[in-house]
Design a protein that fits this description.
The protein is of the alpha+beta class and about 325 residues long. The protein has 2 domains: about 10-165, Beta-Lactamase (2-Layer Sandwich); about 175-315, Alpha-Beta Plaits (2-Layer Sandwich), CATH 3.30.70. About 45% of the residues lie in helices and about 20% in strands. The chain has 10 helices and 10 strands. It is elongated, with a radius of gyration of 23 Å.
Length: about 325
């Protein structure tokens, strides 16, 4: 048996998965109706919507099987998320990845597997919709498309969940998503005694850009700024557009000095980007940095308020 390798985008993939706040939640009809339909359409013993967490596959919905989670290393679906297409295993006893899997050589004696990777807005694969049978079988073109269609129903539900925590314009977290993700990151930093800093950013003279060049151009500025944030900051940092022209970043493992160094790199990168792409105007920003003291109360809401005050003090000096 081959343990599924870790995808190259694993850090970002897990951050997106956790931002959905869907793991370990109760069953929901909107997912259950799809697994029931898949089980009936393909006449298989069971169907599953499974999400691949760091060390486990957690099952959001099942039809025909009463299991809630399994070790990731034993997950067929761990192989599925490595590719972009449906993974079909016509006969598990003949596939080097799973021929000696416990569920193949023993109960329930799985002989056929088909799984579709489930993507969200940025293309990250959260898990799979999969079906399994106790006898080998083959998929034709119609079967392939039918399973893909069912998977798209699941994807649409996951995207609906994601949109509640994602800024639609910039495709980074919104305020709600930031508070959830940043608090989880802060709690981890506190437990492991890792430094952290929160940056509050406000674009300078953004209203003038909107008034002079129009709101469509203003949207381009916001999207361009968000792209620069993704380039400069690490995958482990939490990025958000809080609303309007306000942004926030939580840097784990970074004290004040490192945060200020990163801000200066952002200024340089931003200047080059807009000078090349939008030479008609300049884009600058003011920032406040709040280094977190874990000996004091560290709720994200309070930290944002403190960083906001520091940002406006710095803006007044500009």
């Amino acid at each position: 048996m081959k343990i599924p390798p870790i995808p190259p985008d694993e850090e970002n993939r897990l951050r997106v998965l956790h931002s959905l706040n869907i793991l370990d939640t109760p069953v929901e009809e909107r997912f259950d109706r799809v697994t029931r339909l898949a089980k009936r359409m393909f006449n298989v013993p069971f169907s599953v919507v499974g999400l691949i967490d760091k060390d486990r596959q957690w099952l959001k919905s099942t039809a025909g099987i009463d299991v809630k989670e399994a070790p990731r290393e034993l997950s067929f679906c761990g192989h599925t998320i490595l590719g972009d297409e449906i993974l079909i295993i016509p006969d598990t006893t003949q596939d080097e990845r799973v021929f000696d899997h416990p569920a193949v050589v023993g109960e329930p004696y799985v002989r056929f597997y088909a799984g579709v990777p489930l993507r969200v807005i940025d293309g990250s694969k959260m898990g799979t919709l999969c079906i399994a049978d106790f006898k080998p079988r083959y998929f034709n073109t119609e079967d392939y498309q039918a399973l893909r269609d069912l998977a798209e129903l699941v994807e649409s539900e996951l995207v609906a969940v994601q949109l509640a925590t994602l800024d639609e314009l910039t495709k980074i977290s919104n305020r709600r998503g930031f508070i959830f993700l940043a608090q989880k990151s802060l709690n981890l930093c506190a437990r492991q005694n890792i430094s952290a800093s929160l940056i509050f950013i406000d674009l300078d003279n953004f209203k003038e850009i909107n008034d002079t060049f129009g709101h469509a151009e203003g949207d381009n500025v916001l999207m361009g700024f968000a792209e620069q944030l993704k380039i400069i900051f690490r995958d482990s940092d939490v990025l958000a557009r809080l609303g309007g022209d306000e942004f926030a970043i939580l840097l784990a493992g970074a004290a004040s000095e490192k945060a200020h160094e990163t801000i200066e790199r952002l200024r340089q990168s931003l200047a080059s980007f807009f000078a090349e792409k939008y030479p008609g105007y300049t884009v600058s920003f003011s920032a406040g940095v709040k280094t977190i003291d874990f000996n004091q109360e560290f709720s994200v809401e309070n930290l944002l308020s403190h960083a906001d005050i520091l940002m406006y003090q710095n803006k007044a000096k500009r």
